[in-house]
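Self-study notes.
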Amino acid sequence: MKYKIFSRLIKKNSILMIMPLAGIILMVSLVAFRLSELKEFNSFKLDDISYAESFINDYKMNVSYDISGAEKAGYDYTINGEKAGEYYYLYRNDSLYFIVLRDSDIKKFETGNKVFYFRITTDDLFIKQVTADLSDSFDENPENLNGFVNPIILNAFEYPYIRLISVPVIFYISVFFGILVILYILLILIRPSVSVLVKPLAQFGKKKDVIKELDEELESKVLYCYENCYVTENYLVIIYVSRLEIVRLDDIKYLSKHVEEKKGLLSNGKIFRLTASNVDKLYFEHDFDSEEAIDQIIYYIRREDIVDETEEVERNDKK
């Protein structure tokens, strides 16, 4: 029975490598989904402007509303001192309500569009100004107009288009990438050769064939194993979660070991560095924390045609 050890390691490490990304995608999709359920990130239909106060009490601030019958109030809406829109008014249930339209919305309204999007707001200064102007016009005491001018204003400029659009867009994008991650994992389970982890194998031939060869080598031709490092009959294999280091033993011409002093704030010790090279195309080095392990690895990968440069070189870091 063939266990396909190398294929299993590639599948496992590929999945582990993509799990942080999958976690981020899941978290983003859950946050976006949760936000999409909040009233602040939704828009509601307002059938009658006199119901606006109940919408405020229910935190339904973003609304669409049919402004049929609205008339110009004679006030400009300014932003940074420049005209950006105008106020319109509606008379409903013995109260005067005001609506703010953009200049672009005004053109649409004049050509027949009636339904627009607003955020329910208030503007005490504007309401006081309107009340004062009306009291002057009708020669009335401003206090007699209390309640006639409703403080609620439907403001098209305050409608949060970007916020309302971005939440569902983020949710669907995260779901899309989540599906891609799932498909990628399924594809790796079926064909390990599609994993980005096995990209270095392309230098030895077709990745599918090299994986098959390494499956056989790790199953029956392992000469030495130390942690994530394997020496087989034809390969030196070092497998990490996020990368793969492969050296074909026939490509090695020079082989050496170096010893370096490791100095740090918390620990001191030695690092044993294996260097395998070939003048034409190969230069490989890897650090080990065990001298015995590196000696065993050198012993098993050494061949008669390799120039033996194995010697200890003490490098004292005096910094």
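Second protein, same conventions, sequence then structure:
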Amino acid sequence: MKKIKEFWESLDDMTTVSKRELFLEVVCCALAGFVLGILFCPKKRTTIGSFNGNGRELPDEEAIEETE
């Protein structure tokens, strides 16, 4: 616990960050957010159309062959 307190107190120091480092930190945080969002989002299934028989209708002969 003592090491954690020392580390926490060392965070008060002022430091200079270059624009390149700041940009890379922002990019890393954004990409991490995308990955975590993909991993923890609820799974969704999208159905286009309702499978209610729209589309090609089979002639009577083919329909009989497929049911057998």
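Instructor comment on the second fold: The mean pLDDT is 80.
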